[in-house]
Design a protein that fits this description.
By secondary structure, the chain is mainly alpha-helical. It contains twelve helices and no strands.
């Protein structure tokens, strides 16, 4: 039975990654016409109507109000930082390079879980984190023709904000519903980013309407699919399939923008991905040791 559930979880994760990759492609398109903070606002607001319908359909409206508001506010702020920084980077670099750097997020989650959650990380996992950081340097190539610059640093900022947000989810999940976490993150992201973007707000162009709708649909679809993936499948089994996003990024870069990454970027991405996969494997072993 668990094997069947894991297969369902893997399929759901692959669908989620596809949706999120298409959403990021839409954000990249929008970032060419609008400021990064406005793109973050569009991301939050475009999915909000669908999430409200989801909350109503699941009968979880009552769970929306009794939540840990300070942590939700902090998560909303982190979401604004993550999306605006990532949108800024997508305007200036290929999706493949951005994803290669963003894949450092699982390594950061493991590292930050020590001071923030009091978790224990052994020498093997610290070694994997160190190797992953070497992969980041390969992608950035501070002394060569890498992506070091404001765009590359913006992706690392986005990855750090995402890692901190993921740690907050671990804390919030103990008391708050999934629906409340998704809804309030989108509300705070959309409203907060819109307020910050208002002084430089650009009128929305009619030609971009379908892209905004696609961002809303794909963002919502990805959220539902990834929730289902972790609901039915074991996290250590389904999580590695998040790295299939690199294939989506390669395909979109080639089909839409006619660009491909160089060999060193792919090498650096491979190092980061391999480190993340090793961390997931060690997490599975570590969990198994605690819960025989």
């Amino acid at each position: 039975m668990q094997t069947q559930n894991n297969v369902r979880g893997i399929v759901a994760m692959l669908i989620a990654v596809g949706f999120f990759s298409l959403m990021d492609g839409g954000l990249k398109q929008l970032s060419a016409h609008y400021p990064a903070m406005q793109v973050a606002a569009i991301r939050g607001l475009s999915s909000l109507p669908l999430v409200l319908l989801w909350v109503a359909a699941t009968g979880t409206v009552a769970t929306l109000w009794k939540v840990r508001w300070p942590l939700h506010l902090l998560r909303g702020a982190l979401s604004i930082v993550m999306l605006s920084a990532f949108a800024y980077a997508l305007k200036r670099m290929p999706m493949t390079g951005a994803y290669a750097l963003f894949f450092v997020a699982p390594l950061l989650i493991t590292a930050l879980s020590v001071p923030l959650l009091g978790e224990k990380v052994g020498p093997r996992r610290w070694s994997a984190i160190a190797v992953g950081m070497v992969g980041v340097l390969v992608v950035l190539r501070p002394s060569g023709e890498g992506v070091l610059g404001w765009a590359g640093l913006a992706v690392l900022l986005a990855a750090t904000a995402y890692a901190l947000s993921a740690i907050l989810v671990r804390v919030l999940h103990r008391t708050d519903s999934s629906q409340s976490m998704v809804l309030w993150m989108l509300v705070m992201t959309g409203v907060g980013a819109a307020a910050l973007a208002w002084p430089a707000w650009q009128p929305l162009q009619g030609a971009d309407g379908w892209i905004i709708v696609a961002v809303g649909l794909s963002g919502f679809g990805g959220q539902v699919a990834i929730t289902e993936a972790f609901r039915v499948g074991q996290a250590s089994v389904v999580a590695p399939f998040e790295y299939s996003a690199l294939a989506w990024a390669l395909g979109l870069d080639w089909l839409v923008w006619q660009v491909l990454p160089d060999g060193m970027t792919l090498l650096g991405a491979g190092i980061v991905v391999a480190s993340g996969l090793y961390l997931l494997r060690r997490e599975r072993v570590h969990t198994g040791a605690e819960h025989p």
